[in-house]
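User: I'll paste a sequence; please echo it back and then give the predicted structure.

Assistant: Echoing your sequence first, then the prediction.
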Amino acid sequence: MDADRVFRGSIPALYDRHSGSSILVPYADDPALRLADMERGRILETAVGAGMATRNLVSSLPEKVSIVATDLNQPVLDHASSQLPSTRASGRKADAQHYRFLMWSSTPWCASSV
């Protein structure tokens, strides 16, 4: 029961394989579609979840775009990071509530949880 609550053990992979694949694909596609014109720079992704949106960003954006994918839950972040096809995306444990600078930042960011 505790593993379910904190999304550790096999839960992140099961979420990615079952819930994410069938339900969340349109939401995972959205950030890449919205940022399709981006040629270079950085993206901050909060609430990375299973990493589906991160994978879409990596596969659709040019090499000059780097991505920092963050999540509160380290096991979920570890799973998402293990699925990334590129080293230009990195995962970091972080609480998005502490990103107050985003209100004034020009860095594109997305909150996906997918």
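The chain has a mean pLDDT of 79. The longest strand covers residues 65-71.
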